[in-house]
Amino acid sequence: MAYTRKDVSTLTGAEKRRFVKALLEIKRRGEYDEFVRTHIEYYVADGENGLRAAHMTPSFLPWHRRFLLELERALRRVDSSVTVPYWDWTRDRTTTSAPWTKDLLGGTGRRSDRQVTTGPFAYAEGNWTLKEGVTDGEFLTRDLGRVRDPITLPTKNDLEWALKDPVYDTSPWDSTAAKGFRNKLEGWGTGRGSAAWRNHNRVHRWVGGAMVGGASVNDPAFWLHHAFVDLCWSRWQRRHDGARYLPAKPPGQGSDQRGRIVARHEKLPPWDVTPDELEDVSRIYRYA
User: Fold this and answer.
1) Of 288, 185, 199, which Cα lies nearest the Cα of 237?
2) Structure confidence at residue 82 (pLDDT)
3) Pairwise CA distance, residues 93 & 107, whole Å
4) Model confidence over 176-227: pLDDT tens digits?
5) How far is CA 82 from CA 9, 30, 36, in A?
6) Whole-angstrom Cα distance, residue 267 to residue 278?
7) Rg (CA), the chain
8) Partner of 142 for a Cys bridge, out of 63, 115, 209, 276, CB 3.0 to 4.6 A?
9) pLDDT tens, position by position, 51-108
């Protein structure tokens, strides 16, 4: 029977406590840091050689869908009632609204070093020391809204711009694709500075701190953000009934993207699963 992922703003006190407790337990066991390592490993950009599975690529959405499922399975081994909630950043848009409360994710970082000092993931609590990352910092950092160089969260109109595109993805299948739902949602825009970050990417920048870069999984906010991104994919699928993951087949000989992206029926590393198999997850979970 399918379970339900809920809007984080609707969680009861008990649901918040169980979610936090399960996260802290898989962190204590060392399982959580494996997720951080995996994301760092697959944080491959356009300019790098080899296969891109997780970012700047059509498989951005199914890759993170499977990644979320793996995290959720780990949490549910601790407590079978737990699911990953989603944060609708088009609606909960302030630095003190859900999910930035003391009983869930805690708030922004302090001015001096961006260290998060409130909530269960604060370094001082002793339960959330960062062990994997691109720096040697041991504490979780955030800069909600970027105090020194303010940035706003994506709006409903920004998201609608992506959702109304009827095509999943288009050539050249990377961060420069001007059309297609995937890149519009992932958020690689043109221009310089904050104008270049749309939707998903802009949210990472708005949270700041640990959420910027390959080690972004170190902030539990990563999962709530990506649960909403996954919900957006589900909404796009319902709106454009029959629209499928693209490309359906690998790029042909001579294409710069040959061997660099995952087609619909190809295996999605590091798992033995294809994008095709991840398009319909209605038997596993649904969104409230």
Assistant:
1) 185
2) 98
3) 13
4) 999 999 999 999 987 777 778 999 999 999 999 999 999 999 999 999 999 9
5) 15, 19, 20
6) 11
7) 18
8) 209
9) 999 999 999 999 999 999 999 999 999 999 999 999 999 999 999 999 999 999 999 9
CA distance 281 to 241: 15
Q: Which residues contact 125 (CB under 8 A, 6 or more apart)?
A: none
Tally the C-alpha atoms within 13 A of residue 7's C-alpha that lie toward its C-beta.
11
Mean pLDDT over the full length of the chain: 96
How many helices, marked H, and strands, marked E, lie in the chain? Answer: 8, 2
Angle between helices 60-78 and 31-41 (to 10 degrees): 170
Q: Which residues touch 80 (CB under 8 Å, ≥6 apart)?
A: none
Which tokens go with 133? Answer: 């990352």
Q: Which fold has domain 3-287?
A: di-copper center containing domain from catechol oxidase (1.10.1280)
Residue 231, SS3? helix
* pTM flag (> 0.85): yes
CA–CA separation, 59 vs 108, rounded Å? 31
Q: Residue 243: is its pLDDT beyond 80?
A: yes
Stretch (H or E) spanning 202: helix 199-207
Quick one: which H or E segment has residue 222?
helix 221-239
Q: 101 with 13: CB under 8 angstroms?
A: no
Backbone φ and ψ for 260, nearest 5 degrees, come out as -115, -15
Q: Measured in whole angstroms, how far is the alpha carbon of residue 154 from the centre of its chain?
A: 15
Q: Which helix (H) or strand (E) holds 199?
A: helix 199-207
| 3-state class (DSSP) for residue 168 | coil
Pairing of the two strands 285-287 and 3-5:
parallel
Residue whose pair of structure tokens reads 């970082």 in the numeric block: 109
Assess whether the previous peptide bond of 99 is cis (omega < 30° from 0): yes
